[in-house]
Amino acid sequence: MIGTAIWLTGLPSSGKTTTALALAAALQERGVRVECLDGDELRHKVGRELGFSKEDRMENIRRAVYISKLLNRNGVTTIISMIAPYTEMRDYARAELQPYVEVYVHCPLEQCVQRDRKGLYAKAIKGEIPAFTGISDVYEQPVHPEITIHTHISSVESNVSHILEYLNK
């Protein structure tokens, strides 16, 4: 049995990791073998030398896709919570990972700024962080994700239920 790759994309502080962890718990309760691949953790563990240029971001995506592919082919569903700000990055993941489900974690920029516990948006707004997604670097919103969730108006539980409904089809 091949595992599914579920890619959660959205702005920083949109709720990707929170949703991924709740979704993983719900899938585990249903007997699904699952692993979360978090963008921040991957960057810390296997991408320390990478910066935030478009090329470095793409390399980070390639590494996540490779790890996900290894797990998927061994029957493990992966939930990848990574910004993947460019359409071409998500298109690459979609081409490499099958089955693939893209979840757009929609949250308005203003709400993401308010949620930011790390203070990264404040630093980016001051110009202290170059190439920060949503401020000084682009985020290309997905055009045709399989699922869109709205973390600013729906609860984590509701969003997870929405994803599970899609997966059960």
What's the short version?
It contains 7 helices and 5 strands.
Taking Cα atoms only, what radius of gyration do you get, to the nearest Å? 15 Å
Supply the number of helical segments. Answer: 7
CATH class value: Alpha Beta
Within the largest sheet, what's the order of strands? 2-3-1-4-5
Structural class by sheet pairing and helices: alpha/beta
Average pLDDT works out at 94
Inertia-based shape: globular
Major beta sheet, specifics?
5 strands, parallel
Describe it:
This protein is an alpha/beta fold and 169 residues long. The protein has one domain (5-161): P-loop containing nucleotide triphosphate hydrolases (Rossmann fold, 3-Layer(aba) Sandwich), CATH 3.40.50.300. Helix content is 46%, strand content 15%. It is built from seven helices and five strands; from the N terminus they run E-H-E-H-H-E-H-E-H-H-E-H. Strands 2-3-1-4-5 form a five-stranded parallel sheet, sandwiched between helices. The radius of gyration is 15 Å and the shape is globular. The mean pLDDT is 94.
Topology of this structure?
Blueprint: E1 5-9, H1 16-29, E2 34-38, H2 39-46, H3 54-73, E3 77-81, H4 87-96, E4 100-106, H5 109-115, H6 120-125, E5 147-150, H7 156-167
Parallel strand pairs: 1-3, 1-4, 2-3, 4-5
Helix pairs in contact: 1-7, 3-4
List keywords for this structure.
alpha/beta, 7 helices, five-stranded parallel beta sheet, about 170 residues, globular, single chain, about 45% helix
